[in-house]
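Before relying on records like the one below, remember that each one covers exactly one chain. Contacts with other chains, cofactors or solvent are not represented anywhere in the record.
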Amino acid sequence: MSWDEEAQRRWDELQRRAEADTLASEEQAELDSLAQMLDAEEWEMLKPAIERLRQERDSLLETLMDARSKNEQLFRLLARQEALVELIRSHLTLLLSEHERLKAEYQRIVDVESVT
């Protein structure tokens, strides 16, 4: 049996009687049966939407995992770039010091030759 106008009418009637506390045990069993049928029908109607939401969730999870993986790779790359910048700074400092020593030595040589 599927939910139809007759099932709805019977549900409404049994619900009113239940609220009035005038249900016989057979009617309570019928109301319980109708409730189970209604739950089953609702579940069947919701299945496509639930499946679509599951697929959407799975897709979003995959996108999230991909983004996390890329973020980790980018953080590693950034750390390497920062290390390279620090290496360049230290080499530049060393090179500038050597350049200053060469300039000083040049100046000393030129000054000594101009004196003689």
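The two ends are 121 Å apart (CA to CA).
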